[in-house]
Amino acid sequence: MERPFPTVAVVGLGTMGAGVAVALARSGRRVIGVEAGPTQALRALDRIEASTARAVERGRLEAGERAALLALIEVGDDLAAAAQADLVVEEVPEDLELKRALFAELDRICPPETVLATGTTALSVTRIAAATARPERVLGVHFFNPVHTMRLVEVVRTVLTDPQAAERVAELARDLGKEPVAAGDRAGFIANGLLFAYLNQAAAMFESRYATREDIDAAMRLGCGLPMGPLALLDLIGIDTARTVLEAMYAQSGDRLHAPAPILGQLAAAGLLGRKSGRGFYAYEAPGSSKAVAEGSADARPRAAGREVRSIGVCGSGTMATGIVEVFAKAGLPVLLAARSQEKAERAKAQLARSLERSVAKGRLSGQARDAALALVTPIGSYRDLAEVDLVVEAVAEDLAVKRELFAALDGIVKPGAVLATTTSSLPVVSCATATSRPRDVVGMHFFNPAPAMKLVEVVSTVLTAEDVTATVLELCAKVRKHPVECGDRAGFIVNALLFPYLNDAVRMLQEHYATVDDIDTAMKLGCGYPMGPFELLDVVGLDVSLTIEQVLHQEFREPGLAAAPLLEHLVAAGCLGRKTGRGFRDHARR
Ligand SMILES: NC(=O)c1ccc[n+]([C@@H]2O[C@H](COP(=O)([O-])OP(=O)(O)OC[C@H]3O[C@@H](n4cnc5c(N)ncnc54)[C@H](O)[C@@H]3O)[C@@H](O)[C@H]2O)c1
Q1: Across the chain, which distance is largest between two alpha carbons, in Å?
Q2: Does 188 sit in the ligand 1 pocket, CB within 6 Å?
């Protein structure tokens, strides 16, 4: 097959256009750049020369390659030059009327077979296409910034776009070394559509003072492996830009979760637009700087000191309990591993020994450290022996009746002043607390799986938790080298309340046939730098577990947009639970 689009016009050579022009010329294509006027054209050329010179300095490009690609780019200010192109890529500012006028003009100038592509992020491609007499040859081509490193390209079709034209643009993207995904015409397309709804919830969570900006950001980085926390990312994107994208999404979806959080409007109105203005959710050294500076905390009250913790009890014998015991023992704390029978406790300790052995084999732990950790763990078959420990972590089945029964039992056994912690991920901590006669001593300590590897612990205080109990758990986390974040006792805490609505949105996108499983996963990995796509993650977490969390979140907040996607319910009903059953969103058995 011949190379698609040997000559491409790029209209608008700002941040995106200049990057796209370089990528095209690098693939050996002739590029006709068009700017708004002669001064802008000169500036655009400077930009292209400077960015390619930097690429040579950094070893990303050979000097010879640079000379060859620069020779392929011409820049002027006469739109008529676009008539010679096989494809026109528009990258002018995000303004519907500007883009529509430009497309009407291009439609008059270019031969009927020329394909016209818009670089819009959140405007309607259909409305831009409607300004021309060739809507079948108009589509969206959404690159990501910076173009030279970001591999994702969303190829956006309207209902009128000729599929062949879209396929040729996808082919062009592959030829540029990019990964094209197919999307329909909806504000935000795939990646931003999923990303911005989540960013908006994070902004709202901050605004409601549920957690601090640092804790929200740390929770998502450490709990989900995301490259940046949501509030830091909003500052990078620009609060004004984020608001514009969300407004466009809300106008189309009517989903309240897309209505920009009021805090975004307040920050924008105050000129606090993020990094570019030196302050947004965080304050930066200077406008344009990426270095956040510490500010005096609004809550400068001295914290209560924690209680002393010299010995710990962990209740349970499953994955979480065993992992949590490992965390404490490796940090040098004596642990009683309490299960329902001595046999179960012994088995859990054997499991722990295997885990430590794997660490030794991988060179992460010395044989001596393994022996020392194991020597600190005593398996016990009855909770009676927990009488003298300073802190108990409960990690038994995720069932409120079972947990309440255990807390009532612990209340009768454990010495006064001991801290009682639950590692529940979806049940109310306060319901565990009220099963005891000492609700002030009960707190949530939500570890992530696998506990030895995951750095995050959500420390959940109920309305009854004593300050020194929260402080005890925060101090303990520091001692065992975990990163604690503090939050209140509501469904999902920080991480799940932000993660699962996003996963649910992805399922809804699939259910509406907006994009495929593979394209959605690719868009989030390449467009947002996520370690896994939403469907990969759902299959790992388990569809049944995910459905339960989504139901709990919907039950708590009653937000219509949080209702679990019917497709997820259907898959669970059909027994497709993810990797554990061999089939979820993907068929793992056949791989
Ligand atoms: N910046 C991003 O991160 C990003 C990412 C993906 C997509 N986009 C989208 O890409 C498009 C371009 O955004 P940008 O960030 O590159 O903007 P920008 O402001 O950096 O560049 C726009 C360029 O268009 C030129 N221009 C304005 N009117 C023109 C006209 N009539 N004819 C020719 N040139 C004209 C301007 O002089 C400027 O150089 C927008 O639709 C934006 O939403 C931006």
Answers
A1: 86
A2: no
Annotated catalytic residue: which of 35, 458, 486, 536? 458
**Nearest atom of ligand 1 to the alpha carbon of 34:** 33
Using DSSP's 3-state secondary structure scheme, residue 168 falls into helix
Q: Is residue 553 within 6 Å of ligand 1 at its C-beta? A: no
Give all strands of the β-sheet with 419-422 in edge-to-edge order: 377-380, 335-338, 312-315, 391-394, 419-422, 442-447, 456-461, 483-488
CB 264 within 8 A of CB 203: yes
The DSSP code sequence of 10-23 is EE--SHHHHHHHHH
- CA proximity to 568, closest of 532, 542, 587: 542
**What region does 225 belong to: left with phi over 0, alpha with psi -120 to 50, or beta?**
left
Would you call 412 exposed, middle or buried from its count of C-beta atoms within 10 A (0-12, 13-18, 19+)? exposed
**What pairs with residue 279 in β-bridges?**
274, 283
Q: What are phi and psi of 563, to 5 degrees?
A: -60, 135
Determine whether the shortest distance from the Cβ of 125 to ligand 1 is under 6 A.
no
Smallest CA separation from ligand 1 atom 2, residue: 145
Helices 517-528, 534-541: inter-axial angle, 10-degree rounding: 110
pLDDT digits (tens, 9 = 90+) for 298-330: 566 778 999 999 999 999 999 999 999 999 999
Q: What is the pLDDT of residues 262-293, one digit of tens each?
A: 999 999 999 999 999 999 999 999 998 889 99
For residue 184, what are the β-bridge partners? Answer: 157
Our answer to whether residue 458 is catalytic in this structure is yes
Q: Fill in the amino acid letter for 53.
A: A
Strand 391-394 relative to strand 377-380, pairing? unpaired
Distance 239 CA to ligand 1 centre (A): 18
User: If you write DSSP's letter for every residue of 143-165 in order, what string do you get?
Assistant: E-SSTTT--EEEEEE-TTS-HHH
Q: Taking a C-beta distance cutoff of 8 angstroms, is the pair 89, 61 a contact?
A: no
Instruction: Please give the Cα distance from 508 to 585 (Å, whole number).
Output: 13
Q: What DSSP state is assigned to residue 210?
A: S
The Cβ-side half-sphere exposure at 508, using a 13 Å CA radius, reads 16
CB-ligand 1 contact for 342 (6 Å cutoff) = no
- For residue 2, what pLDDT band results from cuts at 50, 70 and 90? confident
Total length of the chain: 591
Measured CA to CA, the distance from residue 554 to residue 561 in angstroms comes to 8
258 in catalytic set? no
